[in-house]
Amino acid sequence: MLCKNPAVQEKVAKEVREATEGKQITNFAEFAASVDEEALEKMNYLHAAITETLDSIQLCPWMKFIWGDDAEEYKPERWLNEDGMFRQRSPFKFTAFQAGPRLCLGKEFAYRQMKIFSAVLIGCFVFKLRDEKKTVNYRTMINLRIDGGLHVCALHR
Asked: Which of the 8 DSSP states describes residue 138?
């Protein structure tokens, strides 16, 4: 999704730089270690971009009813309040981690892992699709796969 939305990718990269206080990245392991709890808490836009991506891969027929006419548009801002802070939505509305007594116990851990991994990658690289005109299709399987793979170029930031 970030390859198809370069402005979002740049906004996430800017937020990562600000949250990590512009630390120079000379070693990936050291940079990953610098993405501590305090830095992660500042990454609201990254959290929103991840959540929007999780929501977009599970599109269902009633999405417009739940999210409005722009439901099929990749829009991380829908997850932020007017102050730019991430706002939780009802788990019955956003079902990536289920809801009620079946709410995923690992939800916060999963978000933490996704944010650290994304912050390190986006902090270090710019990602572009090798063929920006090619449609990306998901294969229906037990886990999410991209039909034909996803050919991406990673350039040093």
From this structure: E
In this predicted structure, what is the pLDDT of residue 138? 79
> Which residues are paired to 63 by β-bridges?
none
Does the model's pTM come out above 0.70? yes
The pLDDT of residue 47 is 96
* Residue with token string 């600000």: 18
Which stretches of the chain drop beneath a pLDDT of 50?
Answer: none
| The two three-digit tokens of residue 120, written as one number | 């390190």
Domain limits, the chain: 6-124
Contacts of 13 (CB under 8 A, 6+ apart): 122, 123, 126, 157
Query: What element of type H or E holds 152?
Result: strand 152-156
pLDDT of residue 87: 93
pLDDT of residue 59: 55
26 and 123 Cβ atoms separated by less than 8 Å? no
Please compute, for residue 155, the number of CA atoms within 13 A of its CA located in the half-sphere on the CB side: 7
65 burial (CB, 10 Å; 0-12 / 13-18 / 19+) is exposed
